[in-house]
Amino acid sequence: MRKTTAYIIAVFVLTCLILLPYPNPGKGNPYKQGKKLETIILDAGHGGKDPGTIGISGVYEKNIVLPITLKTRDFLLKDYNDMKVILTRDRDEFIELKNRGKIANNNNGDLFVSIHCNARKSEEVDKNGFEIYIMDLGRLNEAMNITYAENNFLNFEKKDSITFRQSVDYLVTSLAQNSFLKNSERMANILQQQMGLDTKLESRGIYQAGFYVLIGASMPTMLVETGYLSNKNDEEYLNSQKGQGDIAKAIYKAIRLYKFDYDYENLAK
Ligand SMILES: [Zn+2]
């Protein structure tokens, strides 16, 4: 293809993206004008044969993140009668990482929150507090390929050339991932603030990481390491009804605030 032809096609594709309404708003599409945030995916880490981190007194991460997740779901369902809350697991069950993203995508989730507990590495000094992770920008390409493979953002008629369709799909996918990242960042900031207000845990900050579970779901995603099971105080708190309730309340309130913003922006369009 000559350079000028390629240039004309590129300009045309971009113009289409800007001017045309999206013909198939649906699965995984972030451009849901007029649509409220309605499907939340809560992912309790580990489960079944995978205990996750083991605390200093012997508690299993899988048994702490499950009640936090169930409580968060209950808070949300009590508050909203039009919200769908999907759990990747609601019992002590092993779910492969790649299936967690699939569950989220198949249910057309608007937000994915993965809930975990941390432990210091043996060479590290004692650590405590919560950390929030969003997707690493360096793994954007990988995420785009998964999104591209799993979702058909645009179903053009067959008359369009395959190359044209792929270029548009790829561009839309990339725009979608950028929008997901922006919303993940927004939710991470809200959650950080809310965890600070509602729990006894200290914030260790928001980071970008290449966690597979964050890459497989085509929607804004985040992972919260609620505290360190290797730290005596964190472990005691995370293992208590009070601690689990506080964390669930913080996650619920953060989703509530995020939804308020999201709905306002989308409905205002
Ligand atoms: Zn974990």
Give the tally of structural domains: 1
Helicity level, as a percent range? Answer: 40-55%
Return residue spans where pLDDT drops below 50 for at least 5 consecutive residues.
Answer: 16-31, 151-160
Instruction: Determine the mean pLDDT.
Output: 83
Q: Figure out the total of helices.
A: 8
In CATH, the architecture is 3-Layer(aba) Sandwich
* CATH superfamily (homologous) name: Zn-dependent exopeptidases
Q: Got a strand count?
A: 6
Describe the structure in your own words.
The protein has helices spanning 3-19, 61-79, 97-106, 140-150, 162-198, 212-215, 232-238, 241-268; strands at 39-44, 84-87, 111-118, 130-135, 203-209, 221-228. Helix 5 (162-198) crosses helix 8 (241-268). Strand 1, helix 2 (61-79) and strand 2 (84-87) form a beta-alpha-beta unit. Helices cover 49% and strands 14% of the residues. It is globular, with a radius of gyration of 20 Å. The chain has a single domain (37-268), classed as Aminopeptidase (3-Layer(aba) Sandwich). It is of the alpha/beta class. Strands 2-1-3-6-4-5 form a 6-stranded mixed beta sheet, with helices on both faces. Zinc ion is lined by residues 45-46, 52, 61, 116.
